[in-house]
Amino acid sequence: MDFSLLLSSYATVWSNPEVLLMTFIGALGGVLLGAIPGMTATMGVALLIPFSFGMDLIPSIGLLLGIYCGGMYGGSISAILIHAPGTPAAAATLLDGFQFIPTLIGLFAVSEVIAGVERIIRGEEQEQKSKEKITNVLPDLKTIRQIWPNILSGGLIGTFIGAIPGAGGDIAVFVSYGASKSASKHPELYGTGIPNGVAATESANNGCSGGAMIPLLSLGVPGDSVTAILLGAFIMKGITPGPMMYVTELPTVYRVFAALMLANLCMLAVGCLGVRFFAKIVSVEKKMLYPIILVISLLGAFSINKNAFDVGVCVAFGIIGWLMNKYEFPLSPILLALILGPMCEKNFVRYMNIQRGNFFAITTSPIAMVFAAVAILVIVFSMYNQSKINKKAAATAQEKA
Fold this sequence. Notes:
Blueprint: H1 3-14, H2 17-34, H3 41-48, H4 57-82, H5 101-122, H6 141-162, H7 168-183, H8 195-211, H9 213-219, H10 225-236, H11 245-248, H12 250-278, H13 286-305, H14 308-326, H15 332-354, H16 366-400
Helix pairs in contact: 1-12, 2-4, 2-12, 3-4, 3-5, 4-8, 4-10, 4-12, 5-13, 5-14, 6-7, 6-8, 7-8, 13-14
């Protein structure tokens, strides 16, 4: 490892006023958005990516990472105060063409607006308010000594699971919570607001943000929803994440991780300074919120090519996303196919040209077979995990019946 290059890359990022400002703005916006029940960091990143076109790579990545980290923290505010965490989006993706950004905004932002308006019309949208008062911003030393093992284990679990493409924070927090509860001398206290449980879940949630960057930068495969959007941001800036990035763009890799560390520090600063104010955001009226989101969504879609057709595409995919969510069809397969499909086709054609049409030549490459085995294991793991979730949901339904 070239430590001089590493240090110079960090110094370049941390001494750049534009990067500092954009990352701080991203963290602030992410916390504000994440604190509103039903709003997500994925939606925030999807909304703001059109406005990052005119920026250099690192300031734009800092802005998006700030929203990412801030949104995860902000979601905890509503979860703790009113027991209404933001609903995580299944997945988000972006193609290497600007014309597909309206698709992204429509599926994740406009669809939520339509669903919210439907709930208001049916009288299902209940305004939630918190009567809780925040007295301490930081835990005392006694609490820190009590929860530091949970923070350490949760961070490691989150990083590891975050590095598995498609796993994400949802799985990490439950694994971390279960591990913490199993190792505790008083597991009966879990579920009553014990700090150990909160520390285990939140450290795992935050650990996923760094872990998800590993497959993105090393393999060019997004680890979760937001890194899928970041993949599109890299491609739009002329950089293709993957193994060769560590050869041709190593300074950029270091700068991305420097921006990620900066985003977490900005999240900490924003959270400590504004936690009492952010707690009031949970009471915002949705009748005021949804029109604002809709205007920003359509403005972002129009600003891409200054084309009204993009606005129509955004609205159309918003309706499609709303219908899919309404009837419980996952968006992930469609969206991942949009970004990975063209990449697979391009590289498959390249491979077939190199091998002169001999598809089975791949079996002679140990590296290729290792990657194939890993892909199969990931699929099997995902199917096994989903089957467990389905069985647990069925058992819960039977108990309630």
